[in-house]
Every structure is written in C-alpha cells, then in structure tokens.
C-alpha cells in the first residue's frame, strides 16, 4: 500500500483553556491529525504572540465560552493576529456548557473577528460541551474530533 506524506501541509492549533478542557480536546485533535500525516503544532495563546503566528495552511482556533461569549483573552488575541499565508484557512472550536443555547455566541464572535483578517473559513466550527464549569468534556467528544479530522483530511487537497 502506498503512503502519501503531506509534505508542506502545516496545521497550527492555537487555543485558550481555563480549566484544561480545551487543552485536552486540542491535544486529542493534534494527535488525530498527526496520525493522518499532517505537520501539526499545538500552541497556547500564552506561548505565542498574535503577530508572530507560524505560517500554516490551516489554523484551528479554540476557546472556552464564558456567559455565552468567548473569553476575553482569546478575543484580544484574535483581534491582534496577522495572517501571512494568503491561502490559509481556519476552523473554530468552543468548549461551552450549553452548545445548543441561542445565547451561546462564541463561534459567531470568533468568526466576526476573523472576517477582518486575510483568512478563509474551511468549515463550520464545532462546539464541545463541558458537563460543568470546570469540566469534564462530554462523553464521546473524541468521536466528534475524529470526524472533524476526517473532514479536514477530505477538504485539504494537496
């Protein structure tokens, strides 16, 4: 069987995590994408400056919601980012208590900020439910992330 290596296809996962749920989910996604052959870097917003993003083909931004909005630290980070790769795309993730609530606007807020940037949305974002304020993540969150990794693989053509 021939294995195709995705040379030059870089993915940056940039996240904020208050209680570890975002870290847990994005670490799982990182490993899932690496198994598919992608070069993936996982970066907390506290490890990187917004104007110094690595060049990537896909940026995955993940943030928790607080009272239906993305946390301030991620909002400020996204407002300051500069995308250097003209063909770059993005996907958004939120960890939240009530993903079906109309008051939960985290993904929409992130998307509104990114409309001002030089970047295109690859697909609709994903909300991951946390069972309580500090977690844990909903049972079966791994399946949702595996499905997202499959969608990424089918959407990113070399």
Q: How would you describe this structure to a colleague?
A:
It is a single chain. The protein is α/β, with parallel strands linked by helices and 158 residues long. It is 30% helix and 23% strand. It is built from 4 helices and 7 strands. Helix 1 (21-35) crosses helix 4. The longest helix has 15 residues, at 21-35. It is globular, with a radius of gyration of 15 Å. 35% of the residues are buried.
Mean pLDDT: 92
Number of helical elements? 4
Order of helices and strands: EHEEEHEHEEH
How many strands appear in the DSSP assignment?
A: 7
Multimerization status: single chain
Helix content: 25-40%
Distance between the termini: 19 Å
Rg value: 15 Å
Please summarize the sheet with the most strands.
7 strands, mixed
Report the portion of residues in β strands.
Answer: 15-25%
Point out poorly predicted stretches: 1-6
C-alpha geometry: globular
